[in-house]
Amino acid sequence: MMLEIERLTVGFQTRDGLKQVLHGVDLSLSRGETLGVVGESGSGKSMLALATIGLLPRGASTSGAIRLFGDDLLSLSERQMSAVRGEKIGMIFQEPMTALNPAMTVGSQIAEALRLHREISRSDARSEALRLMEMVRIARARDRLKSYPHELSGGERQRVGIAIALALKPALLIADEPTTALDVTVQAEILDILDQLVRELGIGLLLISHDFGVIARMADRVMVMQGGRVMETGTAEGVIRRPQHAYTRKLLSSLPRRVRAGLGDLS
C-alpha cells in the first residue's frame, strides 16, 4: 500500500481548550488509484490534505500515523518533510495563483522546482518544463514558457500548477478542489488531464472536492467526511448506488437532477 493513514487526529489549542478538527481518520491509497474525499465546507477534508503533505498551521497537534511507503511522515523533521514534498508528494491547490509567483514566468517556476531538488542544468530544466507544459496540454507551450501568471487564463494557470506538482515525478498527487474556480468546460478538461496522469503514470490521486459529481466521475473509491469524521467509505459505485449514511444521502440528494441522472449510469 502506498499511503496509509491510521487514527489521524488533528487539533488546535484555543482559549476554550483543545479543538479537534480531525477525529481518528483512516484511509489507504494505492498507486494508480483515485480516492475521492467529499464533504461540505468544514468537513475536514482540506485539513486532511494539509496534514498529509505536512503543511498544517503552526500550533497544530497531531496523533496517529501517516505512512507513505511505510515511512511515518508525522515523525519526520521539517527538513525531511521538505524533501518529501515535491519528490514523493505533489499538491494542486484550489486557486492556482496561491502556488504561483506573480513576478516569475511560469517556465522559470517549473524549472526552479526541478533545480531545487535535482542537479540539472538551466537548459535541461527549461526543456523539461516545456515537456511538462505540453503534457498538461497548454496550447503554444513554447511561447507560454515566457508568460507571467497574470497573462494566463484560470485554466492555463491550473495546468501550470499541475505541471509544477508533477515536476519531480511524485508517487502521490493531492488535488484540493482543483476545479472549483473554473468554468464547466475547463473543469472537464482539467479532470481529464488528472485521470490520464493516474492511468499513464501510475500516480495515486487523493482528490478532494465538495462536488459529488466530480468525485463520481473520477474516483475508484469514495470517502465521505463530516465534522472531521469519516462517515462512509467504499467503492464509488457502491457509495453512489447504495449510500449507507444519512449524510451521504443528503449530499447526493442535493445534486441537480440532471447530475443525479448521470450518476445512475455509473459503471
From TrEMBL:
Signal peptide: none annotated. SUPFAM superfamilies: P-loop containing nucleoside triphosphate hydrolases (SSF52540). It is found in: Cell inner membrane. InterPro entries: AAA+_ATPase (IPR003593), ABC_Ni/Peptide_Import (IPR050388), ABC_transporter-like_ATP-bd (IPR003439), ABC_transporter-like_CS (IPR017871), P-loop_NTPase (IPR027417). Residues 3-252 form the ABC transporter domain. The keyword Nucleotide-binding applies. It comes from the Bacteria. GO terms for molecular function: ATP binding; ATP hydrolysis activity. It is a peripheral membrane protein. Belongs to the ABC transporter superfamily. This is ABC transporter ATP-binding protein. It comes from Martelella lutilitoris.
